[in-house]
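Ex. 9. Protein: Magnesium transporter MgtE.
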Amino acid sequence: MKNPLLVPELRDYLESDNHEALGLFLDSGHPRVIAEFLSALTPTEAWQVLGTGPLSLAAEIFSEMDEWFQADVAEILSRRELAQLVTEMSPDDRVDLLARIPENRRLRILSALAVAEREDIRKLSSYHEGSAGSVMTSDYATLSPDLTAADAIDKLRREAPDKETIYYAYVVDEGRRLIGFASLKDLILAPAHELVEEIMNEGVISVRVTDDQEFAARQIQKYGLIALPVINGGDALVGIITHDDAIDIITREHTEDLEKFMAIQGSHDAASYLRTPALTHFKNRVLWVVGLAAAGLVSGGILHHFEATLSHLLILALYMPMLADTGGNTGSQSATVVIRALALNEISAKDMLQVLGKELKIALMLAAVLACVAWIKVQLLSGGSPIPGGFTLPQVGGAIVLALAIQVITSTLVGALLPMGAARLRLDPAVVASPALTTVVDITGLFIYFTCARLILGV
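Predicted structure tokens for Magnesium transporter MgtE:
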């Protein structure tokens, strides 16, 4: 939503020092919308515009900018300016920003922060990348169980400006052990004198700091939560993951799975495609492409082995693409649904036999339909054409149809077996399945095709 038509107007305001107009612009819409408008400016210009508003609003808009633009803006800021900006940012956003800053500058920024902020950043940064602890925020509202509903609302009213969300307030004991939660709605509707411990819900859905971030995001998605509490080994509340963070996590995981499925390596960061150097794209793609091209030599070996068969019946070459394409399509379908089921924890490696049994049933039905289609295609394309070697079209068609049916069955089973096998070996199914699938299907398809032709036609 970068609006180039707005850029000249903003630059005119900057040149004329019209701070009032720029301040009104910053406050004119959702921070994300303003952030996208500012991304059309240079980093220096964007920071000049942000500087015309309150620092808290500037931090909120800055947090909504794309990561690459945040890094560009941070690079042009002085130590003091960046320290002030970081102080105003939410805990999880400032940890992410500092992680993208060179270490020597990061240390200088940290030394300029207050002790409380520095310690909070240290704690949040200590959690393993990809864990729930690494994406949580320490900005959450807590209540004591002995507060009345009226006192609890007063407390939330005072703390609201500094908290990520107050729609959920988490009830903790003296040791900060999570014992329940109360929604803002529950507190408002409760009698003013009623205690929080009588209002709160004890069935709290939570995750551990060591749990995978995708699991945490799926919990928010599954139960429709606004926020999810994160606890440590002692059941003490240490942070929350909000629904907007969960959406970001799921988006990143989808991007990562998609790129892995297409045999693309690298960090799988959500960086801009155009801003990523071509050399980086090349490095991320070349290894698997070269490896699979080398593995394709096996296909060439099979063709060489059955060269005599192919020379006797050149008609077989006409239907080789159909066999390869059909096998690849059915195998990819099978692999996709199995990988998705594994990712959503609908199945696990121990369900391998059940999955293979189900895919076999599907493969048999697909094979029957595709065999009929193949038979019709052979009759239409090759009907009336001379068949060398004294063979009849039904004989050749029978060999092609049988090979196609077997190929569909084997490809479907291989498509299911590869990700299930990877899961059992504790490997990433998306990484193993897709790159290997095409090569395996091509090799098995050629072998099946010419073996059927040799057995049925005797060539």
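Check your answer against this statement. The two ends are 64 Å apart (CA to CA).
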